[in-house]
């Protein structure tokens, strides 16, 4: 099993054990993508907001790797 597969398995296991956290991370990612797609409707700095939300979602996906069990 590759190192990537081990990381992916750990992230999937964490998300399956914490469905509320899973929902929050994917909601934030969805909002970030939605802002990128509908940027004229957001107002000022839509790219900045979407990048911030997508970075938060990415960090949310990396958090399970940092948690010690």
Summarize the SSE layout with pairings:
Layout (H helix, E strand, L loop, with lengths): L2 H15 L1 H19 L8 H21 L3
Description of the molecule:
- The two termini are 20 Å apart.
- The chain has helices spanning 3-17, 19-37, 46-66.
- The chain is mainly α and 69 residues long.
- The chain has three helices and no strands.
- It has one domain (3-66).
- It is 80% helix and 0% strand.
Distance between the termini: 20 Å
Shape: elongated
SS element count, helices: 3
Q: What is the helix/strand order? A: HHH
The helicity comes to over 70%
Keywords: Membrane, Transmembrane, Transmembrane helix
Protein name: DUF962 family protein
Transmembrane segments: 21-41, 47-66
Distinctive features:
69 residues; mainly alpha; 80% helix; transmembrane; DUF962 family protein
Summarize the structure.
By secondary structure, the protein is an all-alpha fold. It is built from 3 helices and no strands.
